[in-house]
Amino acid sequence: MKMEKISVGNINDFVEDSMTAFEIANRSVLVILQAGQFYALEDKCTHDNGILHDGELLDGAVKCERHGAKFNLTTGAGTMPAVKKLRIYQTEVVDGEVFVIYQEL
Fold this sequence. Notes:
By secondary structure, the protein is an all-beta fold. The protein has a single domain, classed as Rieske Iron-sulfur Protein (3-layer Sandwich), CATH 2.102.10.10. The chain is built from no helices and 9 strands. β2 and β3 form a beta hairpin.
């Protein structure tokens, strides 16, 4: 399984409670900074492929604007109507640079 560490910017490029979309390996990935922690997850709702960066950032979750499904930032678990989990990516900060750890499935 191929694993890659991809830079998405400097830590100062992100503000607290922000959601930033990136294209990584032909996939839309959403990077979130909340409570000083970086999270990265698939940027599409598993219910109907709604774009999550257009939704709302809640405490520990992101809410899809289309039908209200909420996805846990740590586990990717969703609420109805989304029954399938989101893909979660590991993040890492090294010398002020933010990385998403991407693994091919």
